[in-house]
Amino acid sequence: MRWLVTGGGGMLATDLVRRADGEVVAPKRAELDIRDPAAVRDWVLGHRPDVVVNCAAWTGVDDAEHHEDEAMAVNGHAVRELAARAAEAGARFVQISTDYVFPGDAREPVPEDAATAPLNAYGRTKLAGERAALEHGGHVVRTAWLYGDAGANFVRTMIRLAGERETVDVVDDQHGQPTWTADLADQVIRLVRASAPPGIYHGTNAGRTTWYGLAREVFTLLGADPGRVRPVSSAAFPRPARRPEFSVLSHAGWVGAGLPPMRDWREALHAAWPGLRP
């Protein structure tokens, strides 16, 4: 199987390259800027992949508030072109999306078909990318709270701060599912290999916690006192872009496709730990 993975420098793309079998090509932005239609056509129609996984994205949530047009060019318009060229090449297309397409006002795990209503510009641009992917018969995999050993992320930040500060204040009123990029990469591979029907899938580890709960777990794994982590509200860290309060996603889509959902977030974090610890 031939894979084209865009955004080759990112955490998820790195794990896809490591874990997918067959021929995997993962150009970084300097090699393939997905905003360039001619370059997209050359890469997709030139390499003739069996699968295109789009990991390229504008990920600056706060920056998108002030540069929504630029973010839309990457997360929306470029996805439409990429999905169209994948369809032209007869390749399966997988778009990586986000929990930020939801308003975050739920209290139970959010199903794949729940109404979308993004709170911020980033969410609006990612929702545009979802719609473009679905229009061309693609798969959308929504994920959240990603961490891995190939880039900066919350878990690595907590590891660093544990060595620098006596106490760390962490938000305790945002609920979600920490997700290991290696587990997500495996799930995307399963999705493709199972020839699952096009549609929306929620690619997060199971269970739920808050950023505060995740930070305490990191401190515990470090052998540090988790009491050094102090809970605070989101108001303690004002940001240009609003964050959803509740980002716990349901995983019924996997069951419907005959695939098991991803494992619990604590189990995943413990499995990831050898590659994350200092």
TrEMBL record:
Its EC number is 1.1.1.133. Residues 1-271 form the RmlD-like substrate binding domain. Pathway: Carbohydrate biosynthesis; dTDP-L-rhamnose biosynthesis. GO terms for cellular component: cytosol. GO terms for molecular function: dTDP-4-dehydrorhamnose reductase activity. InterPro entries: dTDP_dehydrorham_reduct, NAD(P)-bd_dom_sf, RmlD-like-bd. This is dTDP-4-dehydrorhamnose reductase.
